[in-house]
Amino acid sequence: MLTKTFSQERVIQISIFALLVLLVALLPQLRVLQGNPLIFSEETYGLYNSVFSPTSFFEYIFSYVYSSSFVLVLLPILFAVLSLFFIFLLLKTDNSFNLKMIITGVVVSLTPAFLYAHLSLSLSSILLLVSLASVFFFLKKSFWQVPFLTLLFLLDFISGLILTILFFFYSQFVERKKVWCLFFPVTISTVLLFLFFPQSFFSSSFFSLSPDTMFSFFGALSGFTLFLLVLGGAGLVYYLLSSQRVHFFLLAFVLISFVYFPLRLLGIVILAGYSAVLFLKLLTYSFSNEFVGQLSLFLIVCVFLFSTVWFVNSVVDMEPSREYIQGMDSIFYNDSLSILVHEDLVEFVTYQTGMETFSGDDQADFSAFILYRSYSQFQELLESESIGYVVIDRFVLNEIQLHEGILFLMDNNRNFQRVFAGDTLFIYRYLPAFS
Q1: Other CB atoms closer than 10 Å to residue 197's CB: what's the count?
Q2: pLDDT (tens digit, 9 = 90+) per residue, 335-345?
Q3: In the prediction, which pLDDT does 205 show?
Q4: Is 343 helix (H, G, I), strand (E, B) or coil?
Q5: In degrees rounded to 5, what are phi and psi of residue 116?
Q6: From 18's CA, which of 97, 165, 257, 387 has a CA 20 to 30 Å away?
Q7: Residue 30, φ and ψ in degrees, nearest 5
Q8: CA 393, 394, 398, 401 torsion: positive or negative?
């Protein structure tokens, strides 16, 4: 009887795991069915643009696999599978059915940030995997923590430093001896980075205090859903109030992940674990009104699933779409000219056209140049930056509707020629640049 029960539980675990993996694997294919390019992440296009001059360890690794589309499709799925596997291992208490493990895996897999990170090859996806492996082997006191921590340092020095500091203080808290092994990864990676990639030691651009990137109601592409913050935060507070001081280390890491987005996925995993705990508490809680209790649980599930459905619907048509690929065909290569484009499309346009791009400077960004400058200032910019094409996309179309003149000016000025017009994309050639 015990063997039969164990087998049934194992089948349930494997089935849920397979369904989560299937979701991650099929989501990118929905874009292909709509005729949109499989790769749409600016980060991935940036990796393609850096293959001949890598400036980081991650870009260096990518330069060896970029030519295989098959590998690039499989790698994000593999990273997702292994990340879920390590999450299950970290939450596994024994060989019995672990509902907390399953709920955590489901919450993580259906979070928009996790899905977005694994739609195409990204630094966040491999950082999550290496971080989870480092935590697992550290808690197991295994030698494997050294190579994984070293790899984490090489991929992102600050991420490795943050995790190592937390490991060190945790070791002091539990009075663990032999913490000297934590210093090997720091030493080895510092030497390697100093010799080969000195510019990748610190990436200040990864720090962000923008609420738009931290969280949203439905879930920012690299942030937390409101559901996860409320439920996970409540679960974390529950443990903190129970005088289990070890959870202060996890609280510290979650707070750090708010402002340092390479570690944000790991912060999401931690909150997902606390969400699972609180959800299980609610399942077993004796509500005075059974209907209210059931309704509360139902609403929690609906809000969570709604954010996932919203993300799936939006990612299918997310730019760059098929229209953007067609638009890039209207740009003729010229190595002496550059393209004025919004900063969120710089890497895509560079990859598709092979030309230099310009999206602004220290004084003003792309939107400011397009919307808030006089024509003489705008023309001066075009001349000084040797701009041959101007790309107007959906990122600024809504702003343009609030400002008269720019599209009308380029449509009716003899210095501009519209070479492409779509629903959310307009491309103009600046004719004096070609004379």
Answers
A1: 18
A2: 889 998 888 88
A3: 53
A4: helix
A5: -65, -40
A6: 257
A7: -65, -35
A8: positive
At 364-407, the pLDDT tens digits run 566 666 665 667 777 888 888 889 998 888 766 666 654 555 66
What are 101-138's pLDDT values in tens digits? 788 888 888 888 888 888 888 888 899 999 999 999 99
CA dihedral 42, 47, 52, 55 (to 10 degrees): 110
Rounded Cα distance, 399 and 402, in Å = 5
pTM of the model: 0.84
Dihedral pair phi/psi, residue 339, rounded to 5°: -120, 130
**C-beta separation of 389 from 339 below 8 A:** yes
**Cβ 426 vs Cβ 418: under 8 Å:** yes
pLDDT of residue 77: 86
The owner of tokens 């991929």 is 155
Element (H or E) spanning 390, and its range? Answer: strand 387-393
Question: Which run of H or of E encompasses 196?
Answer: helix 183-196
What are the backbone dihedrals phi and psi of residue 405, each rounded to the nearest 5 degrees, phi first?
120, -40
CA-CA distance, 372 to 131, in Å (whole number)? 44
Nearest to 297 by CA among 311, 280, 274: 280
Residue type, 343: E
What tokens does 338 get?
């550059």
